[in-house]
Amino acid sequence: MAITSIRPRSRSDATPAAPAAGGKVYKPYSLWFYLPTAVIYTVLFLVPTFASFYYSLTRWSLFESKFIGLENFITFFQEPALVKGFTNTLIYAVVTSGSKVVLGLLLAVLLTSQIIGRGYLRSVVFFPVLVSTVGVGLLFQVLMNPERGIINGALGVLGIQGPGWLTDPKWALMSIAAVDVWKGVGLATLIYIAGIVSIPREYMEAARVDGAGSWESFRRIVLPLCKPATVTVIILSLIGGLRSFELIWAMTRGGPGFTSDVISSVIYKQYQAGFYGLSTAGNVILFLVVTAIILPLSWFLNRKEVDM
Fold it and tell me: Which residue, among 189, 144, 172, has the nearest Cα to 260 in the 3D structure?
């Protein structure tokens, strides 16, 4: 049994637009149409970004600032919880993004198949995405209570001694990661559903004619042609994992001890203590870390076209 290779046309294969009369290239929009977007982007992103870089080099309060050079960065890297925060951030980001990719793809395949109540199940899967992150954190803080929580209560009925999900250092970070996956997998599923339904039906029909089973069709057609969706899910979930804060703070506040601290919670603790310049330096470091990870990864994932 053989399935014909499918290779979508690249952008370079597309026929270029014909020039307008007089040899001028036709432009659908005037450059003035881009001006509002450029202004908004400058005001809401570029100005705050450069301001953050400046204030990270100062000791500042609401009313005054004093330039101190790289002192904030030196102090931040001497923070006792920083190494633990970096390690936890990387572990948390990898675990949550990897889980969302796998579960999102599996759920998308299920929810694009011919099953009863497909539309209802799609709504159920996506619903946690719409719920407040802080609200989810407080809810699961109650559900995961080691003594009165419903989860350990249900395990007790089965004769299983439930752990201290949020109080045991060995379980705290992974428990929060599990809640993060539960809340965010709906968005990954939605992206994968869009990728699967965009696959031309002729490909699947040709595979069935060639005698391909469900697994073979998934491996040779669905998986390769969903590569753009996979790249999107990986990038979005990895950025979210590296910048995670609300859920962790709502559930454990970085505890017990520093065991579930991430970079964002370390930065927030500096804000709470009134070290605004130090926390701004931490935000700059976080921005650089996310950029240093995401840009090369994005280039690596997008450097090849889908080829089966």
Answer: 172
